[in-house]
Design goal:
Strand content: 15-25%
Order of helices and strands: EHEEEEHEHEHE
Bound molecules: pyrazine-2-carboxylic acid, zinc ion
Largest sheet: 6 strands, parallel
Helix content: 10-25%
Oligomer: single chain
Distance between the termini: 7 Å
Number of strands: 8
Structural class: alpha/beta
Strand order of the largest sheet: 5-2-1-6-7-8
Amino acid sequence: MELTDTDVLVVVDMQNDFCDGGALPTADGHEVVPVINRVGRKFQNVVLTQDWHPEGHVSFASAHPGKKPLDTVEMPYGEQILWPDHVVQNTWGAEFHPDLNLPHAQLVIRKGYLKDVDSYSAFCMVDGATRTGLAGYFEERSIRRVFVAGCAIDYCVGGLATDAVKSGFDTYVIDDATASIDPAPDASADRAWREVSAAGVSRITSSDLD
Ligand code: VGL
Ligand code: ZN
């Protein structure tokens, strides 16, 4: 595929807590970093997202007495899956992976910073109402195609890719540049791939961009 200045690579939540040694590790976070670095050089436009929770965030099991990670609770905006405490603002776990090397990235968009509402897609919080400004940024920058990589297809990559399609962008998830929280057959990553494909997202590999 030929890339142009109306394409953007969005690198989702490539943070320590989603990699080996982190609080909510993906199975393969450290493996995708070199792929992202290589692919990133082909893009003029690179945007990073950063999951960025305050202490006591609503998505933390520790904030709900008697609950443990992967339990769910009902919130005004719907069902909330609970996680270990992760990407707490200004901690090591919230920092980008030290090997991520994308000096030309133009924008870091933070999400999940409201204590009472979670955010998977970097376009919008899960309440469906609180928008981050990313769609407006893409519009002003005349972006047409959105390529997505990072952590994790099961949640934040899948959520962003689905919203990108809904916002009218041609959207591609780069498989070998994308990590999974649960890659087991029929578990969350598998389900997310099926959902994003049904939504109209294309699944490609990094070699398609060579
Ligand atoms: C994520 C679960 C909770 C992700 C973030 O980046 O995919 N998943 N917070
Ligand atoms: Zn989170």
